[in-house]
Amino acid sequence: MSRYLIPFLMSTLVSVSGCRSEPEDGQPVVSSREMDGDGDPQSTLSFPEAVSQLVTLRNQIRDGFAADDVDAAHGPLHDVGDLLTDLEQIADSEGIAGDQRQAVTAAVNTLLDAFGAVDKTLHGGDGSTYPEEADTIDAAVIELAQIAGVDSAGASADTTAATVPETDAASVDVAEPVPAVEPVPAVEPAEEPAPEPKS
Amino acid sequence: MLPRYRLLLIFILLPLVLIADSHRASAQNVRPTTITRVFWQDREAGKLSYADLVTTNKWNLKRGWVQNFPTLTAEQHSLSQMQHVDGMLMLAVRGTDDENLQSGWVAIDTGVFEEPHGNHFHWKYTRKPTVKRAVLDAEQGNPTHVTVDDNTFYLGHDAKNGFTQVTLPQLKTSGSADGVRFFSGGGGHISLAVVDNAVAYATWIDREGENAGRVDVISLEAGGSGEPAYSFRLPSGGIHGATTNSGKVFFAAADGVYWVQADTSVSETAETVQVNHISLGIDEETQTPFRTNAFANDRNWVVCTTGSGPTSALCLLNAASTSPAVIRLPVSAAEGLRLTAPELVLSLGKRYAFVFQDRIEATSDVQEQLTVIELDPNRDRNFSDARVRTTMPVGASRVEGHHGNHHICFDAYGRHAVFTEPGEGILNVMTLNNLRIVARFRVGGAPDSIVAVGAPEHFH
Question: pTM for the full model?
Fold first, then answer.
């Protein structure tokens, strides 16, 4: 067994050590959008790949809201806008034409409106909630998935990421010790503003 | 243990230890996210404080000082209302020394701004707040109320029977006197309602006498006289609040609410203006009319509070109606408590009114509360189904006259609230998706009015 265990653990070690959410300074962020010679973003995805990615993002957004974890939905909600903007160009580059091409345009516009309304709400505006737009979004995704020949369901997003621990308001005892904030020193008129206290 | 098995064990355990350490390190190095920047008044010290509310895997307040803030003392000055728009904070300052009224206003660049990021914006907190302009002298006449209308601040100068208009673009670019204009109108303790930056309604506080119930109407047109075009009189005085919504102007007076049609062309006269009355009811015990002191607006609804103790209520007025009537939502409150003015927020599609149940008498020891009212549970934009969502105990206020009540503010996305406990010297952080308090910070002094500028940073 050890013949397999040690290489597995070593590969796990490598993958964990190499996993980071932020690129190092100076490293470009590699995404689905790459720059062409004129500096304009140009997608390298095929139409089926792009629609599969749309399904994944839809699921991350849907599951984030379902889990009451709006931060899990926030990033995908921004990314889906970029992807939808590219989708018609990708359809053209792959020769999708006629009724199917019109259906792509209609679905993309529907999704931009629906996700846009959800995004507006997320940013404090008077838009829609995800459940209010869910049927509209799902119908448009199914339409695109049928054209692309991909699964419109995809996998559910992992929304188990750790969030900030919360305290039940009902359990808060005002007599409990309160985490103190370091006091800010007094500022005399002639002095420069005090530096930020250490947090 | 045989050497080859010992070696095997090391190979097995070493990665596990490193994995665990990596996870611990990542937990400690979660990228700090600034949620919002809060500015609050400390009435004990007479100063303005600010801090960035930051979260990683725990909450933190990073405090600092507003650069170039003028020297004020609690003995000689009191900070009054403050409002912000487009990253600029306007603070009214009252002088307490009648012999030398050093009063006026301070405009602060909050340092918070939105940066374009493709098809959306990211909030940035990279700059420190700095005073853009401070006007503090014996000529300013003790401003109290601050109103915002479309990127323009208006400050009522109580002792000068007039108000100042401060235009934001000029303030941001030059910080000079450009864009600052004085108008005559209003008196005593002036409330202002401004409609479309075209006309201002400035009120008089008098309860009796020739100016009781008086409202001055002033054209804000460039090149105008700066004097009231006409004045009219409400049937009752003691006007302490004014607002505009859906083409109407509402006033809070001794006998409930009055309203008039907004006269943006300033073509009416004292004889033609029609004053309408909305009663908030009669207190059976005292046989006096219920009144309110301040309004809040959400969509076409004007929201206010009235009563005290068992008669406490949230009042809702549909300003879009041709004849607005009051919808009264009782709020259960103990004897000795009074509702503060409502603060409204739109949070992830839900509309809330936050009202504190504060002690009427500072010496009282009755438990104070925070009540959260959901204004539109069925989301049909008709607030007639408003209901109390929750009520929770809060730490003490420190009521002294018009000051020392609890105050609350919200980040620009409506995700978090921060509220003060003046009697405890504490700021509370609440997440609005579940209405739970997630952190409490002892900042000392008597934290009073508070505003939040900006929304959570977003990284991707």
Answer: 0.82
Q: What is the mean pLDDT of residues B408-427?
A: 97
A97 part of contact set with chain B, CB < 8 Å: no
How do residues B230-265 score in pLDDT, each as one tens digit? 999 999 999 999 999 999 999 999 999 999 999 999
Residues in B touching A131 (Cβ below 8 Å): none
pLDDT > 90: what percent of chain B? 78
pLDDT at position A15: 34
- Bridge partner residues of B416 (DSSP): B431
Q: Name the pLDDT band for A27 (thresholds 50, 70, 90).
A: very low
Task: Tell if the CB–CB gap between B60 and A127 is shorter than 8 Å.
Answer: no
Chain B interface, best mutation among A3, A126, A178, by max B CB count within 10 A: A178
CB proximity A22 to B under 8 Å? yes
Query: Sign of the CA dihedral A80, A85, A86, A90?
Result: positive
Give the span between the Cα atoms of B153 and B164, in whole angstroms: 8
| ipTM value | 0.77
Distance from C-alpha of B228 to C-alpha of A154, rounded to nearest angstrom: 67
CB B69 within 8 A of CB B45: no
Burial, B120: exposed, middle or buried (Cβ in 10 Å; 0-12, 13-18, 19+)? Answer: middle
Residues with Cβ within 8 Å of A68's Cβ and at least 6 positions away in sequence, in order, are B433, B434
